[in-house]
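User:
Hi there, any thoughts?
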Amino acid sequence: AHPLEEGGCRVRRLGPAAFALRPNARRRPGVSEEGIPPGGSRFWIRLRNRGRRPAAVRLRVDWECADRTLHHDFGYIRHERDADWRLVPAARRGAVVDYRLAIAPGVTDVALTPEYGYGDCAVFVQEAAAAGAQVQILGRSRAGRAIWSLRFVSPHRRAGWFFVQARDHAYESSGSYAMEGIARFLASKDPLAGHVRGKFHVCLVPMTNPDGVHDGMSRLTWERGADMNRVHTAADPAHRALRAAIDAARPFVHMNLHNWTDKF
């Protein structure tokens, strides 16, 4: 087991097939969801079974805050050959959550919620462009990552803008999957998709916080960074780029996709 570049956490070996994890590890003290303790709800680890048979693995995940684990006694796994993530239970003991898993040969991802990284978004943007979306880079993040927009322009010049954004908060990965579905729908020949395109120009901003996604943050762009769904918190180029795009579009409808890790 080892930390991923995207969404990694501190890992300590407890035995031949047992590991202690700290998802809240941060490079420096944070604020809001990035505070230590309690710090965030982001968890994504990659396991590699180099054998030829399934292997039993124990992951001891220490969230450092018992209140947080009320909603964290579950997770999702996906083997490299699987198309979809699968929900798995875990045992909660105070601030610690224990996963006992059977890992097939090859690579398996384990996460609190189905993960979706910056690299996944880059692939999605390329596929959407090939399907007819107009791709624009609204700006770049503090670390130089692209803030993409995908535009589906209506044939009617007086159509208003329908503006949709997602991944303000890095751990809210459902928005990324929803964005892929929205883009596929708008590019399709479905009569309802044609009706929507006839009424609106549509602008999709699929990942407003790429630094937070890449660096394993929960809510902010960095440990003491901007909260992308606030008018202003901390100065950040990603925040400025998003606000400029919204001001330029003056959308008739503005939708911001979120989710949280509440199992209920």
About this structure: The longest strand covers residues 55-62. The CA atoms of residues 32 and 219 lie 8 Å apart. The helical segments are 118-130, 174-186, 191-199, 210-215, 237-249. Residues 1-7 have pLDDT under 50 and may be disordered.
